[in-house]
Amino acid sequence: MTTEVRTTVEDGVALLTVSNPARRNAMNLELSEKLVAALDAAVADPAVGAVVITGEPPAFCAGGDLSELQGADPARLKTVYAGFLAVAQCPLPTVAAVNGAAVGAGLNLALACDLRLAGPGAKFDARFMQLGLHPGGGYTWMVDRALGAQGAKALTLFCDVLDAVEAERVGLVWRRYDDDAALLAGAKELAGRAAAAPRSLIETTKATMRVTSGAISHQEATEIEVRAQAASVHSEEFRERVTALQARISKR
Hints:
Elements: E1 4-10, E2 13-19, H1 29-44, E3 50-55, H2 66-69, H3 74-88, E4 94-98, E5 101-103, H4 105-112, E6 115-118, E7 123-125, H5 128-131, H6 139-156, E8 162-163, H7 164-170, E9 175-176, H8 180-195, H9 199-212, H10 218-233, H11 236-250
Parallel strand pairs: 2-3, 3-4, 4-6, 5-7, 6-9
Antiparallel strand pairs: 1-2, 7-8
Helix pairs in contact: 1-3, 3-4, 4-6, 9-10
């Protein structure tokens, strides 16, 4: 079976489907490399304003290829991680449409996205402790930011596994859907809202949010924002959208 990342673009949203059906979309070196290439192509496409990532049914991503991890040195591990690290570093908004098991590296892939949505078959399983494997790829940082200290330790140290209902309850996913068709439709609809904004604005705002989410004060955040906001005020996109809004208001 072919290992690939399929890309479709519609209404400004690039849908990337990771596919390694023989291994339930396990993230091996080949798939990781193809995910990086697909993301690079999406970012390079001026028609794309947001990215949705999902898995070939019935899984999202069933972890990493353990045979490739055995005996790996730090350089090789970074190559294995390259796919979801590219997602984490993507300048465009990213949505994980988790349609099945997200295990180990698959959980990393979901965590790397800005927003996580869950279908009925979603399952979130760190599984590092059971394998005798230390977490990698920034997992400990991402899971703590997603769930806080207690939730991060529940998933990681205590090996708790979350289904879609529990993941929504604890805030690991933003929204849960009753079927996979609704999941993909919901992911595209949310991503489409981001894609409808001026691309330069959405990229700058996401970059600003990365900086201001750190341990800084409200005043420092304001100083960071003010420069980017001043630039956007003078943009042609802002002028056109305000003019259109004023025209709609005047007709009421």
